[in-house]
Amino acid sequence: YNFVDTESSFFTLDEQGTETEVDLSGANTKSEERRAEISGTYNFSFGEKLSTQTSLVIEYSELEQSGDSANARTFTRPKGFLSASYDLTESLELRGQIEREVGQLDFFAFASSVDLQNGNDRAGNAELVPEQSWNYEFAIEKTFADDSQVTLSFEYRDIEDVVQRVPFLITDSDTGNRFKVEGIGNVPEATRWRVRLQGTQMLDRFGIQGGQLDYDMFVRDSEIEDPFSGELRRLNAETKWFYNFTFRHDIPQSDYAWALRVEDFENALHF
Fold first, then answer.
1. What phi and psi, each to the nearest 5 degrees, are found at residue 110?
2. Could you list the pLDDT tens digit for every one of the 271 residues in the chain?
3. How far is CA 248 from CA 143, 211, 245, 262, 265, in A?
4. Spatial distance between the Cα atoms of 70 and 75, rounded to a whole number of angstroms
5. What is the C-alpha separation between 147 and 260, in angstroms, rounded?
6. CA–CA separation, 214 vs 151, rounded Å?
7. Residue 124 vs residues 10, 86, 236: alpha-carbon distances, Å
8. pTM summary value
9. Residue 154: which of 170, 142, 139, 133 has the closest Cα?
């Protein structure tokens, strides 16, 4: 059981110091959720080289909002995954996974609010639904006799009901007039992919006794139709590329070690 109970008031102040309250429709509301899920997993193998695991989850949720944004909804969503691994050789493994994922909502998005610091407002959205996605991942992993290891992976996500800031129409309860506002809403679809290389290289055979190099790097791209302009762009604030190299040296015949790390990344814009 989750709930958020919000009450907000918004005032303007004129030059004489007189406060005037401004109607902030949808600011006073209580959002409640009752959620339960049941899951089952099963592991099975085909011979000595191929093993699989599957998980099926059924999630049931009741969402109810009272106050300014009264609404009640129920959802039943299946999720889970199917994964498999196959040993091509004793040191080379292939892995794959298909997953259905369902996100969770920030209940504050149901209530209207004003950000005085940034000078903008956000209309509450009682019809918001969580993101859902199909995730596909494939990886190949190689291990070596000196315990070095390297993994190359590819991930693709097909996302539905992306939670973003969007324009939508609301109706004034007093006048019946409809006008466009900005708030948290859903964009129908988006896609994202990532290629990642990570591993550990032991450095003894290169003459550095007790040396180890860990690395992790990826490039990522995505595509969503901007809800304001209609143009295609990246998802908000995602990491476009990243790398991390960590060198560690355990000094032989001593209790000491030292390390050096270098990393960098670039994030996409947040609209």
1. -75, -20
2. 999 898 888 888 888 889 988 877 778 888 899 999 999 999 999 888 999 999 999 999 999 988 877 889 999 999 999 999 999 999 999 999 999 999 988 888 888 887 777 777 777 788 889 999 999 999 999 999 999 999 999 999 999 999 988 887 777 666 777 777 788 889 999 999 999 999 999 999 999 999 999 999 999 999 999 998 999 999 999 999 999 999 999 999 999 999 999 999 999 998 8
3. 19, 6, 10, 12, 21
4. 17
5. 21
6. 12
7. 15, 48, 20
8. 0.85
9. 139
Structure-token pair, residue 232: 């295609």
Q: Residue 239 carries which side chain, given as an amino acid letter?
A: T
Per the CB < 8 A criterion, the answer to whether 112 and 62 are in contact is no
Collapsing DSSP to helix, strand or coil, 70 comes out as: coil
**Tally of residues, the chain:** 271
Q: Which position has the token pair 């304001």?
A: 228
**Token pair of 28 as six digits:** 């006073």
Q: What angle do CA 99, 100, 102 make, to 5 degrees?
A: 135
Q: Which two tokens stand for residue 173?
A: 């309860």
